[in-house]
Amino acid sequence: MATTAPLTRSGTPRARTPNTRPPGRASRLQAYWLPRPVHPIAWWAWALGLSVAASRTTNPLILMLLIAAAGYVVVSRRGDAPWSRSFSLYLTLGAVIVVIRVFYRIVFGGGDGSDVLFVLPEIPLPQWAAGIRLFGTVTSQSLLGGLYDGIRLAAMVICLGAANALANPKRLLKSVPSALYDLGTALVVAVSVFPQLADSVLRVRRARRLRGGSGRGRHAFHAIVVPVLVDALDRSLMLAAAMDSRGYGRHGRTPSRTRTVTGLLTILGLFGVCIGVYNVLDGTAPAVLALPTLLLGLALGCSGFVVAGRRVGATRYRPDRFDLAACLVMLCGIGTGALLLLAVRVDPSSLNPSLEPLQWPTITTLPLLAVLVAAFPGVIAPRPVLGLVDATGAHGDRP
Question: Can you give the three-state secondary structure of the chain, one letter per residue?
């Protein structure tokens, strides 16, 4: 039996009103977990928070847990784009940094401390090189000091590499302020070179296997390096030509007074931000000058960006929204850095294990909570969209 629309008093069918009720809580929750890319600035803010946390400690247990948290987030939330495969290269780079740092302590002045491990033949140096020693006595305090410093630097590099593997550099360029558009273009190109090299290595090795090439050693090294460099150079030239054809780096005429005010505000702002960040990260700096200097530098820098952005005619097509997921990811990074800064004030001895006398590293509550907050984006961030191919044939995110 057919249903008819309700009638009015005059006998005409009543128009149906569309359902304009806001979505319920269940539908909003389902929409939050839909696969989509997280804002790239959120990933970089998260990685910078982890790097700040790693810079405040030499405890190897905390540093290794921070590396594990960054690795967990990358494995659970990275896509299938070329830059997503670069995290393993950053892990290798971190291992190389640790080895070089320990080797440096053995070669130059490894005798600081009382627990002697072994003695190497010392090479005498001329008088003008006084204070520098080659080889000689190597102590456990010196080796552990080099190992702790190397792990800290490696953790900072790996955390930034995690952002490079998670954030889309093309979308990052779209999010750069108009005042820094030219500088942002150069930075995005520079940041995307390392992931492109990783993708080139994989493609060249796959092509060699398809052609039956199975050589190893020096011959295989030369057979891989030359095609990779040629491929990277071709990609750079194609990118430069594409950017030039779209008008990147072209501006109209602006008055000299505007350029002078813009440059002065930007330079003073960046100078104030550098001093403020240094005072915030330095534990010996007075806290009264740290935060005001940072806020003043940010105010001057933002003023310069606003004035400089008025003379840039660049437009954005479908700009990324900084949604709830991006806010949560960014807050996880800020929370990780803030918890480690608070732990420095509460219990600094647990963050920097003693070398004289030797002390076994321990973990207290605040650093462990900071590690958990650092790994939280691997659970709360939505999964990326996989299997999309752009115009160049490479896998990537939607435009």
Answer: CCCCCCECCCCCECCCCCCCCCCCHHHHHHHHCCCCCCCHHHHHHHHHHHHHHHHCCCCHHHHHHHHHHHHHHHHHHCCCCHHHHCHHHHHHHHHHHHHHHHHHHHHECCCCCCCEEEECCCECCCHHHCCCCECCEEEHHHHHHHHHHHHHHHHHHHHHHHHHHHCCHHHHHHCCCHHHHHHHHHHHHHHHHHHHHHHHHHHHHHHHHHCCCCCCCHHHHHHHHHHHHHHHHHHHHHHHHHHHHCCCCCCCCCCHHHHHHHHHHHHHHHHHHHHHHHHHHCCCCCHHHHHHHHHHHHHHHHHHHHHHHCCCCCCCCCCCCCCHHHHHHHHHHHHHHHHHHHHHHHCHHHHCCCECCECCCCCCHHHHHHHHHHHCHHHHCCCCCCCCECCCCCECCCC
Q: Is 127 exposed, middle or buried (0-12, 13-18, 19+ CB in 10 A)?
A: exposed
For the segment 241-277, what is each residue's pLDDT rounded down to a tens digit?
Answer: 776 676 665 555 556 666 676 667 767 777 777 777 7
State which amino acid sits at residue 357: P
Contacts of 293 (CB under 8 A, 6+ apart): 272, 275, 276, 279
Torsional sign, CA 173, 176, 177, 183: negative
Burial class, 87, CB count within 10 angstroms (exposed 0-12 / middle 13-18 / buried 19+)? buried
Q: Which two tokens stand for residue 367?
A: 């650093």
From the list 205, 189, 199, 105, the residue with the least C-alpha distance to 147 is 105
Residues 6+ apart with CB under 8 A from 385: 35, 36, 37, 79, 397, 398
What the block records as the tokens of 152 is 């800290």
Q: Is the pLDDT of residue 181 over 70?
A: no
**Amino acid in the structure at residue 72:** Y
Which residues, other chains included, contact 168 with Cβ-Cβ below 8 Å and sequence gap of 6+? Answer: 37, 40, 81, 83, 396, 397
What is the C-alpha R_g of the chain?
27
Q: Region 43-68: what's the mean pLDDT?
A: 91
